[in-house]
Fold this sequence. Notes:
The structure holds two protein chains of two kinds. Chain A is built from no helices and eleven strands. Chain A is mostly beta strands.
Amino acid sequence: xxxxxxxxxxxxxxxxxxxxxxxxxxxxxxxxxxxxxxxxxxxxxxxxxxxxxxxxxxxxxxxxxxxxxxxxxxxxxxxxxxxxxxxxxxxxxxxxxxxxxxxxxxxxxxxx
Amino acid sequence: xxxxxxxxxxxxxxxxxxxxxxxxxxxxxxxxxxxxxxxxxxxxxxxxxxxxxxxxxxxxxxxxxxxxxxxxxxxxxxxxxxxxxxxxxxxxxxxxxxxxxxxxxxxxxxxxxx
Lengths: 112, 114
């Protein structure tokens, strides 16, 4: 069973702080990693994807991938109340399948 | 344009009704997905179509019947559903042949079975 694990939270940070969201995965051969943001009652919105070891930055978001440790993280700098949402980590496992395996999500609250 | 359009946005149906959910994308993606999401749970994969052929069926009950009429459209036909089938139904699309490609979700259909 190919699994993706996330801390369910809730994670609470003050406005302006750095929020750090973590994800581990069991399929060592996985190549593609995604972070989705989901507001309550809405559909998941892709905010970051990363395929190579290291860091990838996009505005206030940084995704970090360490394939040796089977670990992917999302950092949100200068957190805003509008960042309050559930963040879903998703992994595309090996085998040529289009299937995305989701973690259970981490609920983030940014306090003004 | 990364838009996946789903209709209707909300649907209430009785257990004896037949209804269909529709999904459309014009990004040239050749993989399309149906997911089901219950409250406070992650999306749960139901079906994947790749190049208009069903490639993954996650042992979904036959009261859910997918259809892919062409590369831009995906339907989910519903018949004799149960109240526990009430959920947010999400359509997504991606390129299937590039292993690293990302999937984009539609806004979802909120289904209530009464």
